[in-house]
Amino acid sequence: MDGTLFGNPWEHIRLLSDDARNAVLVDFLQRHAPGNRVLEVGCGTGLLSAIAARLGATEVYAVEPTEIAEVAQALMKRNNLPVTVLRGRIEDLEPRQVDVAFSELLNADPFYEGVVEVTRATRPWVRPGGLLAPQRLTVYAAAVQASDSAREARAAIREVQGFARRFDLDLSPVLDGLRTDAPHRYVTLAEVPAGPAVVAFDLDLLADAEPAARVRLQLPVFEPGPVAGVMVWFEARMDDSLVLHNRPSEPSHWGQQVCAFSTERGMRADSTLDVWLILEDGELNAVAAG
Question: In the chain, at which end, N or C, are there fewer CB atoms within 10 A of the end residue's CB?
């Protein structure tokens, strides 16, 4: 994860525009902040930490590794709030005892912001019997048509072949370089699953669970036609009843991660797409199996 990315104000504009996300997090604080010591990891502008203090938290620690921490510090000073802004990574800070710790380090690629590693590093801050959120991360995968990438790959090859003929060039090195099995990762707000979702990861973040580096999945497909990728999304359980999510049926600022193939697979109705989900260097990819 590039930490400098999350110092960009536009990242915080995007997430603060998401009223459903904000409602879950404020509800969480209304339930758990009053009378408690609270830690927020990845506080960004500090807004949620300020709300925790206003709701009656006795002490708040707001941890932020990027320069946006300066905004959080100014916010606490302007409002005279009992919030200590700590600039740095939670992994590098000396733990201080709190009753409630929370973060929202989620992305269209659920692992991109390091939620598993950060949650593990946060655990020593929480007193025995305290609350650490999110508690559980479930990642779903589904087949998706995602044909734009395959169409672009074919169009690029046609263009190069045309240049080869027009200018009497051997462009085979270019063509070889364009033929790839690597997926094209992008975020969508418009793609819909081509079949029901399958659970790819189900992680207890309060334990030492590690996501597998490779998971093989059989993704059902409803209707006959081309399928050219895999869509993933998450559910992050904050407490017994509050869940943050980016399900494709409901709008969010996150959207859903798509890993698109360079060629489509023609699928029959009620068939399955055989894929590998691969987690490497904090990024989730998908490749066709077999």
Answer: C
Which of 40, 91, 94, 104 is catalytic? The answer is: 104
**What residues contact 19, with CB distance under 8 A and at least 6 apart?**
none
Catalytic, out of 40, 113, 191, 264: 113
> What range defines the domain where residue 125 resides?
3-133
- 225: Cα separation from own chain's centroid: 29
Buried b / exposed e along 150-185 (16+ C-beta atoms within 10 A)? beebeeebeebeeeeeeeeeebeeeeeeeeeeebbb
What are the residues whose beta carbons fall under 8 Å from the beta carbon of 8, sequence distance 6 or more? none
- 11, 95: one domain: yes
Segment 237-249, tens digit of pLDDT: 999 999 999 999 8
Which three-class secondary structure state does DSSP give residue 141?
A: strand
Which residue is associated with the tokens 């090195």? 173
113 is catalytic: yes
Q: Which residues pair with 272 in a beta bridge?
A: 220
At 188-212, the pLDDT tens digits run: 998 999 999 999 999 999 998 889 9
Same domain (yes/no): 7, 121: yes
